[in-house]
Amino acid sequence: HLKSYLQHFNNLLVLYNPIFIKQARNDSLAILKHLDQAVKLYEKVAEKKLYETAQFEFYLMLGTLLILLLEVLFIFRPAAKKIEENTKQLIRDQEYEETIIESNNNAIIAIDITGKITTYNSKAVEMFGWTKDEMINTTNLTNIIPKQYRQSHSKALKNYLATGKSIGILGKSHQLEGMRKDGTIFPILISFGAKYKGSNSIVIANITDITEQVKQQQIIEQQSRMVAMGEMIGNIAHQWRQPLSVISTVSSGCLLEKEYGLLTDEKFEENVKLIDQNVKYLSQTIDDFRNFF
Fold first, then answer.
1. N vs C: which end of the chain shows fewer Cβ within 10 Å?
2. 243: part of which helix (H) or strand (E)?
3. 8 A C-beta contact, residue 181 and residue 130
């Protein structure tokens, strides 16, 4: 309808036939009708998306709480009980520390003052793909560090082992990236602990794979973008109503003035310019939306 609507005015400028004004007026009514339908449709879609997002967030929160409850009931409590039992059996030797590390749900990796890996638990094997034999008593820590982090990691480690002073990373959680044996890069949450005691100094990393959490966050962000897109389209339709109303009014006025012999050339040119301005505004709105998209 819009194409036909503009064609009528083009024909009017070429042929000067008032019938094109009437046809353009009819098309403008159809355009307004379709735009109203489009606005209602996109408003409905936007409301649905907002509702779905709210529902998703609610069920995500409910699922998280349920998982935490299940962990407390079926993981943490049994694990705590098992650790307590093992403690009684291993209290006279150093196996207690190893048991704690191996039962941890996070990857635990420790290095000594020479940079050699002294601790690499089962969760680290599962998370990164490298076996204990491939990592413990080696300096292969860079196997699990993406290239963009290696230089800053080496600099911070050397500084701490040489001076015992942290550059601000100890005792804090950092969202970074890890690298699996197959080269896959994935998001991690890592915190560092350390003990500076001369030749017995160690640095320990506690690492959590947050791939699923990042995916869930991306889903929520994507849904939010879709809602924003729906609102944008609704705003465009709203902005189109006024210029279309102006065009319809001017074209109808021209037709009436022509019928009563009141339409002068100056008035006709003035009305055509006004219509052209509003058409350009409609076109600019489309360009703005394309740029936003």
1. C
2. helix 211-259
3. yes
